[in-house]
Design brief:
Distance between the termini: 38 Å
Helix content: 10-25%
Order of helices and strands: EEEEEEEEEHHEEEEEEEEEEEEEE
Structural class: alpha+beta
Radius of gyration: 40 Å
CATH class of the largest domain: Mainly Beta
CATH superfamily of the largest domain: Efflux pump adaptor protein, beta barrel domain
Number of domains: 5
Number of helices: 2
CATH topology of the largest domain: Elongation Factor Tu (Ef-tu), domain 3
Strand order of the largest sheet: 6-13-16-15-14-17
Largest sheet: 6 strands, antiparallel, barrel
């Protein structure tokens, strides 16, 4: 019979660390090298991949209408007509309400009649003065009266025009606070109009980030009303004044809202994106091994670990960007670094797990 090779696996536990050694005549299949070479320490490993790193800051804010107004009556009077349906879209120039104009129209007609008389008196004074039958004083008085009555007509016309209240911009009209027949006073609230497409979001960032923010930066907005959905927008304004109480800078972004689902007043979580870098090297933060002021990682080459200095960049959700010191395709140790030293032999702990474990 041919020689039978017997593979003997000896597990030795020293100070809580498991090592694996293969007896003579076989090959260490998990570590990938000849038997008897050295003890292999099981660790967790990861092949480094390049991805996209987004440098951002998360803040809280609230949504606000692109334009908002509370319609008020500029004159007193009885509500004659309601020209809108509550909660429905309204276009610029559409009728909101009309105030009974009977008194204001009568005042207009009265002012118009007085103006016509003043014009006739002025023309007569000019004619008399031209023939030497009138005086300059009479002409001046007639001109003054003409100008006064012209101004009174303009005033009456302005009051009459204000009996019709129209939408100053397109948007969605709110809930009315008056009914037909109500007597409203000048300045009384009637209804609100909100322009919500696009919609604005206001939020604040710490003053230390002032040098990194600028208009045109992208934002991603999330609201509790639509969990899991992202709404993208863009910063369009930065308040030049720093809030002294909170040492923060206020920003405003605009978000497209064509379906009108986002509403003013909603609480918002805003992620402002400072920079997007492709082909970034991202590794788990637990992979880093700090040594005094240095940041290092264990890199695995042919089953042997080497301690390598790296430069860390931004962090995101348990991951850290490696600016220099690592390349895509290299293998690093992500767990079990406390067992290791320079030049130690390692093996992938995942390979030791049996099926279903």
């Amino acid at each position: 019979m041919g020689r039978v090779l017997i593979l003997v696996v000896l597990a030795v536990s020293i100070a809580g660390v498991s090592y694996f050694y293969l007896g003579e005549g076989g090959v260490d299949q998990m570590a990938g090298r000849p038997q008897g070479q050295r003890l292999a320490i099981p660790v967790e490993m990861l092949v480094v991949e390049a991805g996209t790193f987004i440098e951002r800051e998360v803040a809280v804010g609230s949504l606000a209408s692109n334009e908002a107004v509370i319609m008020r009556s500029e004159i007193s009077g009885r509500v004659d007509q309601i020209g809108f349906v509550e909660g429905r879209p309204i276009s610029k120039g559409d009728l909101v309400i009309t105030i009974d104009d009977s008194i204001y129209r009568a005042e207009f007609n009265q002012a118009d009649a007085r103006l016509n008389l003043s014009k006739a008196n002025y023309d007569r004074a000019v004619n008399l003065e031209g023939r030497g039958a009138g005086t300059q004083r009479s002409l001046d008085e007639a001109l003054s009266k003409l100008q006064e009555d012209s101004a009174n007509l303009d005033l009456a016309r302005a009051r009459l025009d204000r009996t019709e209240i129209r939408a100053p911009f397109s948007g969605v009209i709110g809930i009315r606070k008056v009914s037909p027949g109500d007597y409203v006073m000048a300045g009384q609230e009637i209804v609100n109009i909100e322009a919500i497409n696009p919609i604005k979001v206001a939020f604040a960032l710490p003053e230390i980030l002032l040098s990194t923010v600028e208009t045109g930066q992208s934002v991603v907005v999330q609201v509790d009303a639509f969990p899991g959905e992202n709404f993208e927008g863009e910063v369009y304004a930065i308040d030049p004044r720093i809030e002294a109480s909170g040492r923060s800078v206020t920003l405003r972004a605009v978000v497209q809202n064509p379906d009108g689902r986002l509403r003013p007043g909603l609480f918002a979580r805003v992620a402002i994106i400072f920079e997007r870098r492709d082909n970034a090297i991202m590794i788990p933060e637990r992979s880093l091994v700090p040594i005094q002021s240095r940041q290092t990682v264990f890199v695995v080459e042919d089953g042997i670990v080497n301690l390598r200095d790296v430069k860390a960049g931004g962090r995101r959700g348990g991951e850290v960007e490696i600016v220099s010191g690592l390349a895509a395709g290299e293998t690093i140790v992500t767990a079990g670094q406390l067992k290791l030293r320079e030049g130690a032999s390692v093996m992938d702990a995942e390979a030791l797990k049996g099926p279903g474990t």
